[in-house]
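Collaborator request log, item 7. Partner lab (contact: R.S.) asked for a structural prediction of Metallo-beta-lactamase domain-containing protein to inform their binding assays.
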Amino acid sequence: MAMSETSFQLPPAGEGQVYVTISALQGGHLTLPEALFITDAEPEKRATVPSLSFLIQHPHKHPSEQPPSMTRLIFDLGLKRDLTGYAPAQQHHILQRQPVNLKPDVAESLRAGGLHPTDIDDIVVSHVHWDHIGTPSDFPNSRFVVGAGTLHVLEHGGGPLYPANIFNKNEFPLDRTYELPPVDSSTATIAAKRQTEHQWRPLANFPAALDYFGDGSVWILDTPGHITGHVNLLARTGVRQWVYLGGDCCHDTRILRGESGIAMYDDGRGGQRSVHMDTDAAKTSLSRLRELIKHAKEDKIEVIIAHDKQWMERNPHKFFPGKL
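Returned to partner:
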């Protein structure tokens, strides 16, 4: 049965609605062979792309306070500024993604805009691939927020295509790391069951979303497929104005627009794979995003994926201290 059009609508602004400001941050660059990511690619074509990060500033609910105090959140951390900070197996993989450009990294981008890494309260990591985890030690005051199952992946890997040696189980300080609860509570680990701060609920056509600040301004969306724990973020920046941060829901905007598909290639085990752990689930998450955009009506949604070189080139004024 087709989903009703009302199912796609985002919630209207409430009385005294809080809006956030978002600024892009530089997080380094890496080089991707297009044939591994999109269908009908030129076999030898490679593109050097950014790994974008974003600063989200959430004002506290006291409009008379001037200037208003802020909670500062970063979504994704890009690349480490020192490749030796990666595990040996990660470094071997990175050799296949050359050239890489490590500067400016997120910490340097913050300083250039007038903030220090110690000013950051929370860091939401879309997922724990090497080009999104950055340098957590730069943020001694921050809480790290990761999707359900992420801590297990960091310690044990994610199956034969994602062995444990391409992750670092000590990537984040465990005493300051908060793993979101699983969407299916029946699969909750003991650690996850202790987390009661957030509850999943439907938002528009997404079956599982978390109201991060409890005021409808920032939502974390469960977007399975790319790797265990992959999440996206949807933020309210003005009246019927939203920004959707897509992480690695796809790696090229041609896929989002339906001009290309997700590439499949030999998995080395007699089968086919894509860059996603679960290609069907990734396609479902991407389809939800496309449908949300299609049926948004009065809501304007700016969608930015992590490796969108064209967006970066078109929008230098939206990098911190500029804003979206």
